[in-house]
Amino acid sequence: MADHLAALIRFQLDSLLMYSAQITRANPTCIVLLVDQSGSMADPFSGDNATKKADFVAEVVNHTLHDLVIRCTKTEEVRNYYHISIIGYGRNVGSAFGGPLGARNLVPISQVADYPLQVKSSYKRVPDGAGGWVEIPIRFPVWLHPTAEGKTPMCEALTLVKDTLEKWLSEHPRGFPPTVLHLTDGESSDGDPDYIGRQIVSLRTDDGPVLLFNCHISSQRKRKVEYPADESDLPDAFARTLFHISSPLPGNFLAAAAQLGVQTVENSRGFVFNGDPSSIVQFYEIGTSLTGMTPYRWMDDRTESA
Amino acid sequence: MMSPLKTASPDLIVRHVLLPKAGHTLAECEDAFACNRTTMRFAVADGATESFDSASWAQRLATKWVNTSGLLTTEEFWSWLKNEGQAHNDSWNRQDLPWYSMEKRQAGSFAAFVGVEIQIGREAKWKAIALGDSCFVQSRNGNVEVVFPVSSSAGFGSAPILAPSFADVNPHALSAIALQSGDILAGDRILLLSDAIAAWYLSSCEKQDHKTTSAFDDLLNDGDEAAIANFLELERSPGRLKDDDVAIVCLEF
Fold this sequence. Notes:
heterodimer; A: alpha/beta; Rossmann fold; two-stranded antiparallel sheet; 34% helix; 25% strand; B: alpha+beta; Phosphatase 2c, domain 1; 6-stranded antiparallel beta sheet; 5-stranded antiparallel beta sheet; 27% strand
């Protein structure tokens, strides 16, 4: 009994100490954006028939990468606090980076910054401090173009994520564990992802296991379930499978969710089912909050864009 | 890794310490201090790591403030901050910056600031001004008498309102400017501290950890820079002192 109690206390203490490593250039972390690019991603989204799911997801991914680059920018230098992977799956499974980044599965954030496919320009209205507004130029780098072709080879994609992470972890055994943000709109076409998902979350650094968060989106206005702590509200077996391979949200991520007004509880998992556009935005903001950095409120900026 | 400590006139002994984060060089340090014995002004500023060119913004604030007079009212300080911010922002008004630097620059630079002016005379006095979480601490007979603008170790950790280089688009910072004044007796000590060392020092005082505070006080009195660096490194390793840049200005009367 005493041994059991001691083990329980040790587990609780370990849990408190996990996901607390400082992210530095010597101990960077890794962020994997795993994106479903199957044919169904060409379906309309958000009640707006002109916007496809793939369009919206590509836009959010590009804004997320923009945010991560800006966080790492020190004046004229981008420091390599993060190593970034974008893996797409649909007709093909592999790196979704293009241009000079080619087919590389993992890229230091400084190279992500230097090699977008293009940089679009626009203007943003900001308060001028005297009760008026002023327009300032803003830049939208693009790394990911919308793609929607083929089936949903989720297991093959997760296997590539596992292989990529195993290699990265062998070189970076210490520090904040990798985070995998997986977005999909449908069931796997190449088998049950449960086994490979569990393998991914069994990988770890000395600061804790790899974090795998899953966001399932739907064009239909079905009831969405966001960050559940148990399976009771999940509608089917596929939802339960994704729930099982979703990591609990560590404290810093829960705090980021609260900052965004997203309701969570202590054991909430990084999991969304039947998500809508706002779910996607919040999913990436919470999923990249890491050690508690303030989420970059790009949606607010966008609404002020000229 | 530290700047040289100085010993000043018999009336006032001034010491200062600048220590970067573990594994970083002094050139990467985003904390700054400035001392001017002619104006009798002393300042510490702490550039916000996530903001654009925060190190030179912090250094500008500290250096320019000690080398001028006045600026000890909210209105004067705010007006001065706008002008200094304009000069700082203009120094980066280039078209050849990469897209990410241009984006980051648009949000501006941010730093915590605390400055004190000493009036030595028959009745010595101090006036201090602060914006952010760099702290002024006055001790008398070994007891902390005045702490501001953060009053306890629990006050650190949240996102403080800092001195912005774009003051016009951060008007809320105006109301966060803190002013205080007091008298000075022989034997008093004033510390200007950036946030991490301030949080550590106040926490040690609150816990009545006399062993730690006495050791720190003795090291400051000795002025042995290597010993202070070693001591702070030892406090960092178990996490008692957050691994952050450290700036200290110590005035002994």
